User: What shape does this take?
Amino acid sequence: MTTTSLNLTKKYRLRHYTEPVVFSLMLGASFFAVLTTLGIVLSVASESYRFFSAVPLQSFLFGTEWAPSSPIPSFGFVPLIVGTLLITIIALAVAAPIGILSAVYMAEYATPRARAFAKPLLELLAGIPTVVLGFFAALTVAPFIRAMGAQVGLTIASESALAAGLVMGMMIVPLISSLSDDVINAVPQAMRDGSYAMGATQSETIRKVVLPAAFPGIVSAFILAISRAIGETMIVVMAAGLAPNLSINPLAAVTTVTVQINAMLVGDQEFDSAKTLSAFALGLTLFVLTLILNVIALRVVRQYKEHYA
Amino acid sequence: MPNFTSSPRTLKRNRSERIFRAICQSAIALTALFLVFLISNLAINAIPSLTQYVVRLSLVVDPAKVDATQIAAGDFQAIVRTAIAAEFPDVTAKPEKKKLVKLFSTSIAENLQRQVTADPSLIGKTITVEGPLAADADSFLKGQQMSVSALGENSDFEARALAKLKEAGKLTREFSWSLLTNGDSRSPEKAGLRGAFMGSLFTIAITLLVALPLGVAAALYLEEFARQSRLRDLIEVNINNLAAVPSIIFGLLGLAVFVNKFGLPRSSPLVGGLVLALLVLPTIIIASRAALRSVPPSIREAALGVGASHQQSVFHHVLPLAVPGILTGTILGVARALGETAPLLMIGMVAFIADVPTRITDAATALPVQVYLWSALPEAAFRSRTSVAILALLIVLFVFNALAIWLRNRFERRW
Assistant: This one.
């Protein structure tokens, strides 16, 4: 009797010592997320600071020429962001209709069997690594577009914004459709029932009741999609090329922020040159840009959820 | 009584209903079509590389060229050149002999060296050695190239020589195992994926070792122990934002912190794995929290009721029940990490590396990076090999995803 109770006390005592340790380990682990953000901000920002002490901020943000390798290098951000936005717009023009209409189909029309086919299909597309899509864009889609252009007498650059944008659009389809699917499902059934009771057909209900009600959620899906497209690297590295043309012609070759980050860092690098440091300045810009978009999107979603909760 | 169902307005509305429905269906169909086209295009591109023409040469291991005491210094290329010349006794001009030698891969001599090193008694004997044809000759025989020369020069001479070899039964078409067992090479017929496989394996092992414990511990803290506080909000906001940061930014972080500050070896799976661990950490935390949340409170209450401490109830009862869900989320996160390329480019895992890595600090590439590297090479044979590499990557990803789904269906409990 006495021995067991002794053992128990001992065990209890041990528990008092180990548990605070385990607790602080868990607390420490969850701080890694904060540390990572801090690491990104501090490391990227400090390298960027060194870059901006060599290149003035105005000439970076408003310069229209990007020529880091020329004897008198110029680091104008404008051609890169214009190229990035051009490809993003093409991608959204593809992904928005396909994504939303698939979401409408899955949420409103699909039988359980059709859904069991369509959902894994979209998940499969979402799971394909972007390097694979980049290979497809560069070696199949781009030559195809070029040949089509030649048929109608258009000269299309072999690394056109169009090829990269189209394939990136397909990459974003699963993101838009799964987010839109969620928000469409969150629209209360009572709203649909009300519409049907007034004699509306199913498509009239979807177009005039469900989609307007789901609009804020769909907007936030768009914003997340834009953020994803701006940060996407492999498709544009492989299919969009390096030429920093300031152009909004989708048939021309353009370059993007991520392509230039990659180009500045790959290969022989001396770490203190303005050229390599510019990659961090571009990275910081990209980080800030995507962070703002994500915060906006999350806020829109939260308000939307509160609206129907 | 008016007939509503056939009034023009009703018919019009019903027609627009059908059209809208068809448009929605075609959106899904378009996605399916894209996938089918993508996969079949890759498969068709990959087929030529799955087989390879292998040549068998019988040759004399000339003791004048190889010294038994210094086998590594032997001139095996010369022995193979002699054997090739012996196959074509009527060719005497030197430039044409050179053209003949170019039809054969240099790995024939490497195979010969391996055989002789393993068994030095072969020196002086006549033996048969196998090896692939050079990539251009191989592509020509498979009908992929109109001419043996990739540049499209006149190559009737080479074509006749290949036809002669084929008629003599010296050539066989075999499955190209070398594509899986060799390291990378500049010559397409010698290039293989083993280095990339090992690189990916090391990288993912590091990712898993770092991200799984950290992710589960963080999820346990946030879900089971943290009180509602500003600290917890800060951590949660951070995790949600990190999940949406572009992957290339994590690469910049790895370059600036792990490589430049901590001085870890550039291009190594160690750094790659750490970067990918940070990248998938939010995914693992979010999945683990969902798994923990699905364990009903009655389990915790029962444990507390018989005298367990809060931590005992979590570690002895809640966590084991959440393991299947955590593993499913982890496998999906790791599958994502396996396909990531951009962060690995930033930390320099993108160089040409012929040696297969044996340690986590060796310079290495990974499977998706190998795809990127090969896709940039001009040779047509590499284009086909890139497709094979992609299919290998997709198969690995498919296995991971299937495993996750199986785990979910097999072990997940509905409460």
